[in-house]
Amino acid sequence: MTIEINTPSSTATLKNPKAHLTGAEVRKLARANLIGDTGGLGHGYVQCNLLIVPARYADDFRRFCQRNPVSCPLVAETAPGDPTVPSHIAADCDIRTDLSGYCVYKDGELVATKTDVLEEWEKDTYVAFLIGCSYSFEHALLDAGITMRHREQGTVVSVYKSKIPLNAAGPFSGAMVVSMRPFKADKVKQVQEITKKYMLAHGEPMLWGDEGTQALGIDINKTDWGQPTNMEDDDIPAYWGCGISPQTAVMDSKVEGTFMAHRGGYMLVTDLRVEDVCA
Amino acid sequence: MTIEINTPSSTATLKNPKAHLTGAEVRKLARANLIGDTGGLGHGYVQCNLLIVPARYADDFRRFCQRNPVSCPLVAETAPGDPTVPSHIAADCDIRTDLSGYCVYKDGELVATKTDVLEEWEKDTYVAFLIGCSYSFEHALLDAGITMRHREQGTVVSVYKSKIPLNAAGPFSGAMVVSMRPFKADKVKQVQEITKKYMLAHGEPMLWGDEGTQALGIDINKTDWGQPTNMEDDDIPAYWGCGISPQTAVMDSKVEGTFMAHRGGYMLVTDLRVEDVCA
């Protein structure tokens, strides 16, 4: 495969030679399982969380997303039984193979982690839901000269399961999952202003500071996904909605049947340009 | 004023001769301050919560609603400075006079309760937001033969300020407000099925049962608005989003400036038929 690396237009690319891959190029690498975490890849392309649900649950799950748009911003869904992603979202994309890591849940229990879900797909009629991801706005912060600790430290962003309940819909309920990035006080307003327009990528932080940490009922040093972030004393944590929430809902609700999802951080990178859909 | 009472088509009307008023008729009564609580009035017409914000906050407040659609389902908004409600929502309706009770907030503090806000309207440029209300789906439960305790007991529905944070947007943040109606276990599924389509009226319950009560962090016997509900031992509380949430957000956030809102229960009854907008 030939991959052209364009001239970097942003500081984000300086440390990451794969930052300027297109969405289609990232998907090729993911399909071949040559990459894992997609943070920083496909700079400027919309990245998505995935939840594949038995078609009989599609209406309830769509409504679950609509009732929790900050945690589950709905980007697209597939036709029942059709593994093809709508072509304006991601061309020539097979949802069963084009991520490099999947989690398989049965009756609410994680039963397998796989690199494709071709086998599972045959056992029922499924609908795949693509849900926005906060990876999609990180380039905008970097472009504004706002660095993020997990990028500086080379860690995966800190993710927590909170005590805050999502709004139930049909059989789906569960606790909200959040990602956390710390900033100095003088950046708070700017972070809010920059990220608020990216509503398909969870938008601006939903909670801030120690008050946010308390409301979430979490220990900031104990991540449930990703890695802990080394913080300075005057760092202010900013908490964003996170598209892992649907997976915890599947587990918390113990919904009967087989569900498939992306592996944390191993997102579907689409052909959508972030600036085109979040202006 | 001549008011025609049509033949009752539902059990809801049997106890309430004003159930079959049209939205326009209810507004006339409200304008003349001849009614207060609008529960059970204008059977089948969409009832709305109100928040009037200085125009400079309109974008942030609209986004606040979009990020919290279960608490703040957005039905309509007015043009900046224009007190007229869009005519397809409520014809010949002046938002400053056509509710029978208003609360006025200054810098986050409740400073007055009034029957119109003509005087306040002159002091700034305002945008009025209409937000759906759970009164709009009660007729559907009654039509299905599902009674509600507050209707049986002749009390105002129980409303609580919870410990659950809403998703922040710009200067707006705060704790979620919920309304509660108890049901027997054998009605739970039916209540969920019936109310889920009324997304502009908060849709299906967001939380259920003792687990919900705990997640909300409330004492079910201590209401913050409305009145306590006498419950039987095997009653299961169902919690819905509530459009008083924006008022608590204005207070919790201590947003600078003058804000106006409806008085709890004294809703704007529109010309929209519930079944037309929530099918």
TrEMBL record, chains A, B:
Listed A to Z, the keywords are: Lyase
The domain of life for this entry's organism is Eukaryota
Q: Which molecular function term from Gene Ontology is one that the record holds?
A: D-glutamate cyclase activity
Keyword Hydrolase on this protein? no
Classification via SUPFAM superfamilies? PSTPO5379-like
Q: Which Pfam families match?
A: D-Glu_cyclase (PF07286)
Alphabetical GO biological process terms: glutamate metabolic process
Entry keyword annotation includes Lyase: yes
Report the sequence similarity comment from the record: Belongs to the D-glutamate cyclase family.
Q: What is this protein called?
A: DUF1445 domain-containing protein
Recorded source organism is Tremella mesenterica
